[in-house]
Amino acid sequence: MLLPLPLAGAYDYLVPEGLEVEPGSVVTVPLGQRELFGVVWDLLPDDGRAASDGGGGKVLPLERLRPVIGTCPVPPLTAVARRFLAWVSDYTLAAPGAVLRMALSSPSALEPPRPVTLYRRAERPLPSELRLTPARRRVLEEMAESPARPLAEIAAAAAVGTSVVKGLEKAGVVEAVSVLREARFAAPDPERSGPALSDSQSAAAAALRQTIAADAFSVTLLDGVTGSGKTEVYFEALAAALATGRQALVLLPEIALSAQWLERFEARFGVAPALWHSDLTSAQRRATWRAVAYGNAPVVVGARSALFLPFPDLGLIVVDEEHESAFKQEDGVPYHARDMAVVRAQLGGIPAILASATPSLETLNNVKAGRYAELSLPERHGGARLPEISLVDLRSDKPPRLETPGGGQAWLSTALRAAIAETLDAGEQVLLFLNRRGYAPLTLCRACGHRLQCPNCTAWLVEHRLAGRLQCHHCGFSGRLPRNCPECGSEGSLVACGPGVERLAEETRVLFPEARSGLMTSDTLTGPDAAADMVRAVQQHEIDLLIGTQIVAKGHHFPQLTLVGVVDADLGLFGGDLRAAERTYQLLHQVAGRAGRAERPGRVLLQTSEPEHPVMQALAGGGRDAFLAAESEARREAGLPPFGRLAAVILSSPDPGQVDAVAAALARSAPRQPGLTVLGPAPAPLAVLRGRHRRRFLVKASRGFRLQAALLPWIQAIKPPSNLRLQVDIDPYSFL
Ligand code: ADP
Ligand code: ZN
Ligand code: ZN
């Protein structure tokens, strides 16, 4: 029996007489004084005893085993789903129970469905004294031939208030019935026709349909420039998978920001898909989880955790924007959803499609090695041209100061200012991209040089002037901006250093007072609705000048946007991240792709102090292949992913002495094997996070090395004190 707890292995329970269970059954069991959900992992048929998988559960004599309490009214997890959970646990070195918890993420879904009240026409003639208002007549017409339906649905269909239906219930002509009903998502219609595809799109779509027809594991990279129609093309694969009657899963990096994607899905398939992301209410989670488990959700569109939903018959997985780092989960069980999607596809014997305009080196390397197939869409749809990208050298074109009180610091160069003015004059839209939330990334005392730092983290506090707060972007700490320097007490000596989007908006208001501007960051878009409203406002040209963080980079289609200005292209290029160059390239390419998506050509200005940097050269010259080749070569030489393997081991504790002692002990017992290097311990770049002191090891190994086998005995030999946390991150993407 596997319990959704961070325990080492499975537990043994007795199956009482008369209780029907099979491997995968979800049951309730006692543990200590508690009652828990668990999943039957294995059965020993001879004595009907649920047995551990040998993963560490002690073998107890039969008479000491406690019995299973009961089964939950949900379908058993399939063998593929269980193999997937076990695989993820083995790979990430997370306890199987911790992985199971991700699969049983909606505990209320495991309880029996609650009855809902539906209304139907009572089987009796209309009493003669019934007053038949037009509203009542409409309701009765609506209900005449129809089965029992929810109150709100009937009222909406008849265009009346619910009280009209209730009134008819009182009069005895309508009756309420209580039924158990499973949530069901309407079936998308795979036969509806999509847009007429271009030749290259048709060819790619046909190849993808082939992978569905092959009914076997495969991975295909759909590599197409932004605006080439990748979505339309993989919709064809979705249609083919749906036509076989199986389920399909689409993973998107920012599901909360995907309003346009959802509109297109509805336009293509006639209905909305099931959604899965962290903003769902618990009732929505429950309904969706059950609908998936019962096969009542043909298409699920979700964030990475959707991979752990209980699909009984998954036939296709699509990972859109496969290069996105949002697919990497950093806390809890660290895993990369793109990689685990490929594993899930392999275990299920089904195709996976990875789509991107800037595929990751990992994926390109798999294509090169022949493990993945590749389909290219080299052109934008409908003749739209790719934008012209040019570099603005900030060393020679220093942003001129503004004639405003307070020094008038500015961040827009003369060249970019001129381009903005031209674009606005032409009645077109501008996007200014700056990947920094808030007003200023640093606040400094002019008198003593003191910098305002988070009390819980090794990080500067970021001023958010709109909210009137200082915030830590790592732990969420928030406080008022003090009037006096907390260090030397000087009055009015604190000054903002550097730009954030809010400060940039201030600059554009001075330079372009006529332009209607909008701010798009995770602080201003506080939910899917706000995001959708903003996207609509830009599309309908209610906004001339949009200022945004990476949130705007993703997938939006703004036909009238013809200029993208990247305010600080170098941001993110430096720091200890092995993928810094690759990521900067991907992000800036993606942002640049927002320009000129329709008939009007677009242009992009990148402000940089490093115009010779290979990333800038690649962006300006369009030389993606040359850049990737150079980047690959550098990684290969350094033995870094995808040519070598990495794992991080992070220790953290509120007590710095304790974390150092455990780190030293781990360093002494570190595995010493050929092909393996253990670096560290070193204080993490974020040496203190949420009040915990952090030390890191980085483990490097050659590609074929069985990293997990070397790591497991090492970390398991340590019995950490209770307030020390040890986290293993296989294939780390964050090095903070
Ligand atoms: P990508 O995902 O490659 O950036 P999209 O699939 O978003 O590209 O397509 C870009 C735009 O072009 C979208 O508005 C889409 O509806 C449109 N488009 C793509 N292919 C076609 C087609 N064959 N017919 C009509 N419109 C298309
Ligand atoms: Zn001071
Ligand atoms: Zn903090």
Summarize the structure.
With 736 residues, this protein is α/β, with parallel strands linked by helices. Strands 11-12-10-13-16-9-17 form a 7-stranded parallel β-sheet, with helices on both faces. A 6-stranded parallel β-sheet has the order 18-28-27-19-26-25, sandwiched between helices. Mean pLDDT is 91; it is low at 48-57.
Task: Write structural notes for this entry.
The chain has 736 residues and is an alpha/beta fold. It has six domains: 79 residues, PriA, 3(prime) DNA-binding domain (GIY-YIG endonuclease); 66 residues; 184 residues, P-loop containing nucleotide triphosphate hydrolases (Rossmann fold, 3-Layer(aba) Sandwich); 183 residues, 3-Layer(aba) Sandwich (Rossmann fold); 60 residues, no CATH class; 87 residues, 2-Layer Sandwich (Alpha-Beta Plaits). It has 19 helices and 32 strands. The strands form nine sheets. Strands 11-12-10-13-16-9-17 form a seven-stranded parallel beta sheet, sandwiched between helices. A six-stranded parallel beta sheet has the order 18-28-27-19-26-25, sandwiched between helices. It has a four-stranded antiparallel beta sheet with strand order 30-31-29-32. A hairpin with a 6-residue loop joins β22 and β23. α1 packs across α2 and α3 packs across α4. The longest helix has 16 residues. Bound molecules: adenosine-5'-diphosphate (ADP) and zinc ion (2 copies). One zinc ion (ZN) binds next to loops.
